[in-house]
Specification:
mainly alpha, elongated, 67% helix, single chain
Length: 153
């Protein structure tokens, strides 16, 4: 099983402790630069209309909490609003089902899988955020290599 992706700060700490992968200084600088590019401009997310309905009160509370925390780390953009709303809806359904005296295990499992899938897509898990940084760093390396090849030709 491959090693899970890690943020550059974790890689730098591992390097200082003499463990983990042995990244070169150039690789660390590229990853740090790509991690910095991943931060988005500050935006004001608006909850979609279906979250503001009476039946989705719990989902709206989750929305407000996640948006507040997500804006601190500049994680979301306006294009993420609908996906984030669906995440909040499934999280609320999961919590409601889990609070029942006799929860339906199949339903609970289904909601849990949906929540995790949306969390991965939104970058709400540490592994998902680290994976985004690595992809961008690799794309930047490929672009740089292509530019060098063009100059050499």
């Amino acid at each position: 099983m491959p090693t899970p992706a890690q943020g550059i700060q974790v890689a730098i700490w591992n390097r200082s402790m003499g463990r983990g992968k042995h990244y070169t200084t150039a690789e660390i600088e590229k990853r740090a630069a790509e991690e910095e590019k991943l931060k988005r401009r500050s935006v004001k997310l608006k909850a979609p209309a279906f979250l503001r309905e009476q039946a989705c009160d719990n989902a709206l509370k989750i929305w407000k909490e996640i948006v507040r925390e997500g804006t601190e780390i500049e994680l979301f953009d306006n294009v993420d609003a609908r996906v984030l709303a669906n995440f909040c809806r499934y999280q609320a359904l999961f919590e409601e089902e889990a609070q029942k005296n006799f929860p339906d295990r199949k339903r609970l499992d289904s909601y849990g899988k949906q929540v995790l899938a949306y969390a991965e897509k939104l970058g709400l898990t540490p592994t998902a955020r680290a994976r985004l940084v690595i992809k961008r760093a690799n794309l930047a390396q490929e672009t740089e290599d292509e530019e060098m090849d063009a100059l050499m030709a």
